[in-house]
Amino acid sequence: MTETEKKQDFTDRIWDFFCSLKLTILLLLLLAVTSIIGTIIPQNSSAAEYIRLYGQSNYELFTSLQFTEMYGSTWFIALLALFCVNLICCSIKHFPRTWKFFKEPVRVATPGLLKNSSNKLDLHSKESPEAVLEKIKGTLDKDFAKTVRTDADGKIYLFAQKGIFSRLGAYMTHISIIVVLIGAIIGNVFGFKAFVNIPEGDSVSHVMTRDGSQRIDLGFEVRCDNFDVKFYPNTSRPMEYASDLVILKDGVEVYEKRIVVNDPLFFDGIIFYQSSYGQAGDPTISFQVTDSQSGESQEFNAPLRSRVQLADGYSVIVTDFTDNDRSFGPAMRMNMISPDGARGNPVVIWQNFPEFDERRGDRFSFAMLGFSQTYFTGLQVAKDPGVNIVWAGCIMMIIGPFVAFFMSHKRVWACIEQEDKVTKIQLAGNAHRNQAGFALAFDDLMQKVENAVKNDSPTKEG
Amino acid sequence: MDSGQLFNLTTIAYFASMVLYIAYIATKSNKVATVATLAALTGFIIQTGALGMRWYESYVILGSDHGRAPLTNLYESVVFFAWSIIGVYLFMEWKYFKKYRAVGAFVLPIALFAMLWGQMSLNKSIDPLVPALQSNWLTYHVITCFIGYAGFAIAFGVSIMYLLKIGKEEKHQGPEPMGGILGMFPPTKVLDDLNYKAIMIGFPMLTLGIITGAAWAYYAWGTYWSWDPKETWSLIVWFIYAAFLHARFTRGWAGRKAAWLSLIGFGATMFCYLGVNLVLSGLHSYGGA
Ligand code: HEM
């Protein structure tokens, strides 16, 4: 073996390796098995958390194997890349064979095909070949597909085919995977995933990436006018989280939308998702105080932990508040302070039970009237310029296997020749998939052809 | 009549159908097989009514604004799994294996088990949906995933039959067909083909299930893929069945190895459906029910 032959042999072997279906199966199973790791070991947690869960030495092992961020690890990406190379090489290798069906359809049936096909029909007729041809052509054109005529070595050939595109189903499926990955890469490189908290009434023009590494300028302002959380009646099960968002460009309101979970706001390629909420600052509580000596009632609006002056040097401080005390509804806790500065015992007042506090028998009795709390809305903010490419890939990934599995390339040939005084007719057909189904359809079709040919003075041969 | 009673009737019909399919293998009487199919079909029709009834009940209980398709907790999903299995099974029996109904004896038990588990030990209450689940994508996602799972469940039953039969068949000598129970099984060639056909139905549906899930995640959270354990396991299942499909193109991988791959695939499917929630944790919320 010469040096160049050796080289040739070596590159051939590399090529065959990358084209091989065995490699495909191996890679698919490897991807399946290795993917399990990341579902068992929590991903992207803190070092402390890993050490708590697995101990120091295991943690070091995991980081060296990149198990803590394994879906972005060098080896997992390499596996995916090898998978794509395999996919592309395989397609390149097989495509020319498929393309031949498009470029050079077998229009003239070989004697072998006509004789050995498992779907075939032989007929005789006393009519002229041209007359018979017209009948067969009419039937095939109408009930199967448009026929093409070829005259060769004294015989007339007809050819018709249907569903040739199904031969591309597998390619479409394979390309779809590459398309999805390209979309994903574009999204990762040119997009971002971020979050922002906006207190009611405030606006922001920057957001932080979710890993906290980067501050992103939106190029416009988002204002949250209002945040609402609704619960199902008599339960603590949330029914709806909603934020009224307004987009401002150069201080001018250009767009507004009430977003809820599952219905985000799209603006300028950036999407805002309702994700969480929380209390922004202390609530203001309103309550009524009745002085049993004077019989007078007075209403107050007090921020939490502020001191409210009452008659004769007495005062009160609201020390705590909750919007739902067990299941009794909103409640506040307060302390009376007497003129000499002594602090009384804490007292709890429930908004839903306004008459309750009188029973304490103190000089001042309290009823809670309501509260106002400002919230902040927590938004996920994402920009993904690759997402439409991903969806396009997904649509191909749905259509591709459907075409590959459930459609087939069906072909029918006819050969008509004059033999002595008789016209001899041979028909054959095949499908590249679902042969059983095609056999039935072929029999049906042949029945029609036979009827057409027999129409006057036919002779049939089984 | 409420949906719970209809689901109980369904369970009885599936039980009867299973017994009849087994009786068919024992008696070789085609009449028994026909009755078995009719029992399964009856159960399926009752269950379809029951699902509709439960859907309606959700509007009655939760009010006209909050009703939803019965696909939102573990109980509803288990029941829907049984429905999907029987639906796909009846379709395939009608389309591909009218002559080989013994397969029913290996598929009906899976659906029956799902119904029994759901009816006897899962929480059946109709609760209103938390905001994250209030999406039409949920319906599309669950339906497509479960039809996919159903295809794999049938492939699983068929693969077990294949593995039971192939060992004996290889030892079996002589031209006469095998007798006994295994003689009632479809020929191994047919079983191998049915395994492939069931996965041909399951695989595109799983693909659609993963894609609708990704679309939903995109509309709810802003990322179509986040390597959440449930997502990852669905991808693992997808890889395994993709390997199965390609294994059939290389010689030496059809038959026994394909049947094993189908068993492993179904194991992974069940882990994806139940194991992830019961063992691992993540975004998906059926586990708590
Ligand atoms: C997970 C990724 C993949 C999916 C979902 C997929 C899907 C499919 C589908 C649906 C078919 C048609 C099946 C049939 O005709 O019955 C197919 C065929 C095929 N695939 Fe893949 N495939 C994948 C990866 C690959 C890779 C990486 C290779 C590369 C070596 C490959 C090579 C082939 C070949 C050679 C065929 C047969 C084509 C034909 O019959 O014309 N596949 N694939």
CATH architecture identity of the largest domain in chain A: 2-Layer Sandwich
**Largest beta sheet of chain A: what is the strand line-up?**
8-7-6-5-4-18-10-9
| Residues in helices of chain B, as a percent range | over 70%
> What is the radius of gyration of chain A?
40 Å
Radius of gyration of chain B: 20 Å
Secondary-structure-derived class of chain B: mainly alpha
- CATH topology-level fold name of the largest domain in chain A: TATA-Binding Protein
Roughly what is the average pLDDT of chain A, rounded to an integer? 90
- CATH homologous superfamily grouping of the largest domain in chain A: Kinase associated domain 1, KA1
Strand content of chain A: 35-45%
How many strand elements of chain A?
21
Which key features would you list for this structure?
heterodimer; A: 462 residues; alpha+beta; TATA-Binding Protein; 4 domains; 8-stranded antiparallel beta sheet; 6-stranded antiparallel beta sheet; 10 helices; 21 strands; elongated; B: 289 residues; mainly alpha; 9 helices; flat; disordered C terminus; binds protoporphyrin IX containing FE
Short description:
The complex is a heterodimer of chains A (462) and B (289). Chain A is of the alpha+beta class and 462 residues long.
What does this 3D model show about the protein?
With 462 residues, chain A is α+β, with helices and mostly antiparallel strands. Chain A contains ten helices and 21 strands. Chain A folds into four domains: 3-98; 105-163 and 408-456, Kinase associated domain 1, KA1 (TATA-Binding Protein, 2-Layer Sandwich), CATH 3.30.310.80; 192-280 and 376-383, no CATH class; 284-372, no CATH class. The radius of gyration of chain A is 40 Å and the shape is elongated. Chain B is mostly helical. In chain B, α3 packs across α5. The radius of gyration of chain B is 20 Å and the shape is flat. Chains A and B meet through α2, β7, β10, β18 and α9 of A and α7 and α8 of B. Protoporphyrin IX containing FE (HEM) sits between chains A (21, 24, 83, 86-87, 90, 94, 170, 173-174, 177, 401, 404-405) and B (242, 245-246, 249). Protoporphyrin IX containing FE sits between chains A (21, 24, 83, 86-87, 90, 94, 170, 173-174, 177, 401, 404-405) and B (242, 245-246, 249).
